[in-house]
Amino acid sequence: MRSRSSQRWLQRHVTDPFVRRARESGRRSRAAFKLLEIDQRERLLRPGARVVDLGAAPGGWSQVAAERVRPGGVVVAVDLLEIAPISGVTVLRGDFRDAAVQAAVAEALGGSKADVVLSDLSPNLSGIASADQARAAELIHAAIEFCGRCLAPPGAFLAKVFQGEEFGGVLAALRASFREVRTRKPGASRDESRETYLLARGLKSPPA
Q1: Is residue 1 part of a domain?
Q2: Which CATH number do you get for residue 84?
Q3: b/e for 125-134, b at 16 or more Cβ within 10 A?
Q4: Worst-scoring range by mean pLDDT, 47-56, 142-151, 188-197?
Q5: Residue 52 forms beta bridges with which residues?
Q6: What per-residue confidence (pLDDT) applies to 191?
Q7: From residue 183, how far is each of 10, 158, 195 by CA, in Å?
Q8: What is the pTM of this model?
Q9: What's the per-residue H, E or C state across the chain?
Q10: Residue 22 is assigned to a structural domain of this protein
C-alpha cells in the first residue's frame, strides 16, 4: 500500500504538464525542458560545440545538446547508471572523477577539451536535508575540478545546485574559477523544489 507522500508524488507526476510534454515529444525526462529554456535565453549550445554531460541518465539533457550542436558538434554523456543509446551521443558508464573515465572523455572528444560542461548531478537522497545538500555540494565541487581538467578556457559550465548551507561555498568556488556566474530558475523547475541552476562562463586559464 502506498504512503500518502508517494500517492501525492504519483498524482503530481501524472498531472505534470512537463511530464506529459516529455512523453509526447519523445524526451527522456522533463529535465530536458529546463535545459531548453536556459539555452534559449543564454545560447549556451552552439553548432560545432564539444559538450560533456555529467550525471546524464536517463539522457534528457544529452538529447537536447545533441540537437543543438549539430552539425559538427560532439556530445559525451557520463553516468554511473546505464543510459540507452542516444543518436549523436557517446555514452560512457563510470564515475567522472576517475582518471580512466576522464581519459575516455578526452578520447571521445578527439583529444580536445570540452567547450561546455553540463551537470545535472544528484546524490542518492536520504531525506535528511543537510546531509543531502552536503553530498550534492561535494559532487558539484568535484565537477568544478573536472572543468579544470577537461574544459577549455573560456568554456562554460551549467550545474544544478540546491539552496542551503552549502550554496555559498559552491558559489564562491565557481567565482574563483570562472569570470561570470549567473543564477537561473527555469519554469520547468517545480516551485517547491530547492534546486536552482548556476551558469558559469569564462573559465579562467590556469596560472602560468
Answers
A1: no
A2: 3.40.50.150
A3: eeeeeeebbb
A4: 188-197
A5: 76, 117
A6: 65
A7: 29, 10, 11
A8: 0.87
A9: CCCHHHHHHHHHHHHCHHHHHHHHHCCCCCHHHHHHHHHHHHCCCCCCCEEEEECCCCCHHHHHHHHHCCCCCEEEEEECCCCCCCCCEEEEECCCCCHHHHHHHHHHCCCCCEEEEEECCCCCCCCCHHHHHHHHHHHHHHHHHHHHHHEEEEEEEEEEEECCCCHHHHHHHHHHHEEEEEEECCCCCCCCCCEEEEEEEEECCCCC
A10: no
Q: Is 9 a domain residue?
A: no
* Cα 79 versus chain centre, distance: 11
For the annotated catalytic residues, the residue numbers are 160
Cell numbers 542518492 correspond to 124
Domain count, the chain: 1
What's the domain range around 129?
29-203
| Rounded CA separation 180/66 (Å) | 25
- Provide the grid cell at 10: 504519483
